[in-house]
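Hi R.,

Here are the chain sequences for the assembly we discussed:
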Amino acid sequence: MIRTEEMLLNVGPQHPSTHGVFRLVIKIDGEIIKEATPVIGYLHRGTEKLAENLQFTQIIPYTDRMDYLSAMTNNYVLCHAVETMMGIEVPDRAEYLRVIAMELGRIASHLVWWGTYLLDIGAVSPFLYAFREREMIINLLNELSGARLTFNYMRVGGVKWDAPEGWIEKVKDFIPYMRKQLKGYHDLVSGNEIFLNRVVGVGTYTKEDAIKYSLSGANLRCTGVKWDLRKNEPYSIYDRFEFDIPTREEGDAYARYQCRLEEIEQSLNILEQAVEQFPEGPTMAKVPRIIKPPKGEAYVRIESPRGEIGCYIASNGKKEPYRLKFRRPSFYNLQILPKLLKGENMANLIAILGAIDIVLGEVDG
Amino acid sequence: MMENLLSTPPNLTNFFILFSMALAFLFVVLGFVTYGILAERKVMGFMQGRYGPNQVGGRWGLLQTVADVLKLLLKEDTIPKAADKPLFILAPIIAFTPAFLVLAVMPFTDAFHFADIGIGLLYYIAISGLTTIGVVTGGWASNNKYSLLGGMRAAAQMISYEIPLVMSVIGVILFTGSLNLMDIVGAQEDVWFIFIQPIGFIIFLIASVAELNRTPFDLPEAESELVAGYHVEYSGFRWAFFMLSEYVYFFAMASLTTVLFLGGWHPVLFLDFIPGAVWFALKFSAIVFLLIWFRVTFPRLRADQLMEFGWKVLLPIALINIFLTAIVKEIFF
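And here is the predicted structure of the full complex:
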């Protein structure tokens, strides 16, 4: 008789495919996973606690560092929450700049996901192609905000400063270029037999499970739920644009892949309309010098590339928040992982974890 | 000349001659490995929209690999405390030696070859199978879970792909009636075997990529899953030995493909004023380029899909190919 033994394997915190300092303790029998326990917290910086001693404008740089792949949406959710509490009307031009910045960020974030996901699956080139395009977006955002990743661009009541001269034209030029590249991505990867073998039917969950685990973003839409806050609860000026919510029915890794790539396309549509309608005017509303939201509380939620990011503020009328809480989509999306991994093999682990698209800065807060 | 030397009684002179010839050949192979790696990085760079090495040794990065090897030589030689020390040291040697041994039977031109033995092809296949032992030993001796998984995968993969590899060349052997690689090249004077044996060629190509552990079959060292697979604990020159054996096999496999299916040193059509060595080098380079191209383009298969593909697809097709070849040969030749 052959005696087999379960092996306890630590995947991470230093592992090339956990996308940061994420640790997964798995029990494997051969290459089959019997049990998986995610261990998080290696990147915990206590953003929410730190915020309690900071003024609102001072908190914005901290939000940059949560979801560092699309910092603009994080900037926005905080500013949006404070604006909602104080009832500030944001000027049109500022809103357009915000939307353009956020959608560029969404494309950049999906590009990073696309590249790294294929790197996980074993294809090296897509990573470099994706980063080539992402670099262009980062340069655009750098011109706009003065930073490549941690933008700190939005302010309560508007944006830090207006776009530099000729910037909108550069965004205009970028859109057709990106469309062309996107087609190239599909040609290179989407129909590849090996790729399809790796992702179709892998990591499948149902609509009910997705809702039960409160998944959001592409992780939810891949099961057929048509839920995108930009459409369902329009914030900012998203009601002025025409775009679709890409959904799929299958609920597997390939469905998530398709949803994300189509989202890039929809973001390009939004960008196209936004740069077309781009108005003149001020970029900052009239806000008091020291921001003191009235006593009370507010919760706002918006659609980040990873899902539903929310911000809850409890204020006691001081210039610092009494309590600040972020609903970080990566953290919630990650919760379904142990369920998905049970009974899968090692190679699928990477394909499943990658398809969830987590950012560890956001998971750990 | 080689045969004459081998039939004389052993003495210091012919030992010295044989030794120096082997050494000279080793340098040829090392030269290929050095510039093969550079070529791979350059071609990959070209396909991925970047430059590749362009700093060390002029703008073509001609000394990059040399510098890399020097760095590896200077690195501290670490052996993990929990490792099985003798096996750990032995594994890279077991992996590398057969890689060099197989080159002995490779005919590069009708004049330039070492051992012209009757069962050259069988020798190649038998000896190259030994490398698996080195890989598994390395994976086991490291006492690391990742390298153990990598070593096991390597063993499973190499064994299951060796079979279709052997089966795919049987068609060639049937046509030639010999296992001698010189005879096989000789039989392709008029028509290359790639045209007579297209199915065999495709199976051979796929199986050889799997044998070489290259993308899309690079599971034993799947970087994103197993970090580096069986050589995760190796560093410095021991690691370099694993890499070296991999690239020497790359060299050997590209040569073997040229010999078996692309007509070795035979020229294309009437262009026989160009020497055979050049033709061999051209065909060889085409295969090398193709394999690098694969690496840039394809994602990686999953272990179970790899096994399924090997046993359920490649092996039956290879068997059918043998059957068809036998019928065709019986009827038409």
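Residues 92-121 of chain A form the longest helix (30 residues). The mean pLDDT of chain A is 88.

Let me know if anything looks off.

Best,
T.
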